[in-house]
Write a structure and sequence with these properties.
Elements: E1 10-17, E2 23-28, E3 34-39, E4 49-60, E5 63-67, E6 75-82, E7 85-90, E8 98-103, H1 113-121
Antiparallel strand pairs: 1-2, 1-8, 2-3, 3-4, 4-5, 5-6, 6-7, 7-8
Length: 126
Amino acid sequence: MLFDMNRLIGTWSSYLYPDLVKKGVFRVLEDFRYISFLEDDSPDAKQRWLPIKNWSEFVDDSTIRFRPVKIHQGWIRKFCFRGETLFFETIDSDPIKKWECHRLKPNEIPSWFDEQVSKVLSKDWK
């Protein structure tokens, strides 16, 4: 692979196109596990930020597979960088979904995020 995979490691904010109001915050760990919190601001939501954890594996320099458990087929996403902005795109859905992601500086990470990541990491990953 020519792509520097370590470029993905870190904490990011993401927005689903074209609805830039729907947002998420995610962290890619050094072993490429992926922890995401998606905002659910609907009136009947049981919690505002919904945790999602996935394994990830690189298919090639522009394709990644996310899996909720290692034996699951998972979901394929195309990805690319334009400058420092990261983009993900579905290839297996209609309509195609796209996310724009920006790396967060330490002072931009929500105050609740690290504690919630620790809670997710304290549970088994299968």
